[in-house]
Design brief:
3-stranded antiparallel sheet, 11 helices, alpha+beta, 4-stranded mixed sheet
Length: 312
């Protein structure tokens, strides 16, 4: 047998460092997180806020958070399923819903810090580039850094809708128009790109969904009824889309808190391991037993198993 050189010696394993848990799970990009969280020493532990945007299969989630040694602290949060209280009952994961969720979070954050009257944001939604720091004001605006996690920052992604909503809502988030829908890359490096604000506005008001609805309605009514069944159930057609989002934006600006959920007056009664609710449902919940009772239970099971084996 040929000589094989041992590479992973005892010294190798002594110097091996296990990666952080969320890196092993593929949930956190620590290279990006370190850059977002790092604060200058001369700022004396001032909070560095992040505008966190995440997408699930059903909704868009936005948070304003800052990092501490004990973990992240969330200042305010908004999710697209909350838009039902503002009139957007369906379509909670498209570009228009992401914009409305970002706008909702921005107004909630500013209201929490009593800045909602000083920073109104961009009230006319025309898709044009807007930076709240350019306006003349006695106080500096509330600054956040965009945190998109593991998402790839490609042009026209829904995350830019959430960013645009937060910026129009009055938050100062450093950004450019290069990734917005409607931006056209220059043909040569020396030239500047073109930004079509009207194309971005159409995305904000869900015109791309409206056009798809109209196309399906004409070409394939069966597929239209299957794809937009929830829209049909809520009585929303292509003509009502823009009005729905316009009214929702106005409601968010007037009162971002939303209506509190009604408390369910449900009472519970326990009968040994069974818990019966007043609404007719039942749940099985085991009773807590002491260590002595648990040992007796185990001993009884062992004795029963031994007796069964003796019989056989």
């Amino acid at each position: 047998m040929a000589f094989v050189k041992v590479l992973k010696t005892a010294a190798y394993f002594k110097r091996f460092q296990v990666a952080k848990r969320r890196r092993r799970e593929g949930k956190t990009d620590y290279y990006a997180r370190r850059k977002m969280v790092r604060q200058d020493k001369n700022k004396f532990n001032n909070r560095k806020y992040r505008f966190v945007v995440r997408f699930t299969n059903k909704r868009c989630i936005c948070q304003c958070a800052y990092a501490t040694l004990r973990g992240d602290v969330v200042v305010a949060a908004a999710a697209s399923n909350e838009l039902s209280a503002f009139g957007i009952t369906v379509g909670h994961k498209n570009y228009a819903a992401a914009y409305a969720t970002g706008l909702l979070l921005a107004r909630r954050v500013l209201k929490k810090f009593d800045l909602d009257e000083k920073f109104k944001g961009k009230e006319e939604l025309d898709g044009e580039e807007y930076h709240v720091e350019d306006e003349e004001n006695e106080q500096r605006p509330f600054k956040c850094i965009l945190d998109v996690g593991l998402r790839r920052t490609c042009v026209g992604h829904r995350m830019w809708g959430a960013l645009k909503g937060a910026v129009d809502g009055g938050l100062h988030i450093p950004h450019s128009t290069k990734n917005f829908p409607g931006f056209k890359q220059p043909e040569e490096k020396s030239q500047e790109g073109e930004y079509d604000a009207e194309a971005h506005k159409e995305r904000i008001f869900g015109n791309h969904v409206k056009e798809y609805m109209e196309m399906l309605q004409e070409e394939d009514p069966t597929k239209y009824e299957a794809h937009f069944s929830k829209f049909i159930a809520e009585g929303i057609d292509a003509d009502k889309m823009e009005d729905m989002y316009t009214e929702a934006h106005e409601k968010i600006r007037s009162d971002p808190t939303g209506e509190p959920a009604e408390k369910k007056a449900i009472t519970y009664e326990r009968d040994d391991d069974t818990v019966k609710a007043s609404d007719g449902t039942e749940h099985v919940r085991s009773n807590k037993i002491t260590l002595t009772q648990r040992r007796e239970k185990v001993a009884a099971k062992i004795a029963a198993a031994q007796a069964k084996m003796m019989e056989e």
